[in-house]
Design goal:
There is one protein chain. With 244 residues, this protein is mostly beta strands. It folds into two domains: 88 residues, no CATH class; 150 residues, Glycosyl hydrolase domain, family 43 (Tachylectin-2, Chain A, 5 Propeller). The strands form five sheets. It has a four-stranded antiparallel beta sheet, with no helix packed on it. The protein is globular and about 55 Å long.
Amino acid sequence: MRNILSITILVIMFSSFSFAQWNNDPAQNTIVADTTGSQIMPKAVKCKDGSSYVSWFDTRGGSYYLYMQKMSAKGVREWGNNGILVSDKPQNSFLADYALECDKTNNAIVAFTDVRAGSQNVVAYKISPKGKFLWGNDGIMVSDGKGTAVNPSIAVTKDGSYVIAWIISGEPDKIGLQKISVEGTNMWGKTPIQYGSTNGEGFIHPKLVPSDKGTVILLHTVTTGKFPAQKVKIAAQNLIPKVK
């Protein structure tokens, strides 16, 4: 169900920064956006140049839309007082977790889910430090609409591309994977890779770690049985699929 928590001022505390311009008083955190409606599910990522991106879902337009703000290394809001609108595409009756990363040239990569194509799909946007939408105003479709896609994870690979993994809800759950080029092309074909069990186990909660030569290590949870009698274990896999 939708989170109905009402927040009128979105703030975030960057305790890891030592810049004097950041407010170090926990009761007076640096404001990222100050607007009407609810601002929920914020995420933040630091870039190599010391700047940061913050993303969140926002109801100022009446529904939950994704917004983003860029903060300078000194804690200055660079995209206006209330950030920029990333996507106003329709959402499901619930909001799923999503992912935010910064690449080696200080671009933001954000992957989340919406129902613009009718079913719950993963979409990704690449936004430059100047706020330019490098993969188009509507981003790119990452999943293929087969099964409900939720909880994407992103890895920025050492060859400069991006790998996104997500849960494909089903019986059992599987993990979808796609590699995206710098230009925004799906490198593993129109149909994403599906990684699943051969004995009925469910694969969920994917996390990606960049490895050598453009590969990634996939960490995930393995589940068996039904709630509440469920067995859980952790697994890892080094993925080196061939480009289709």
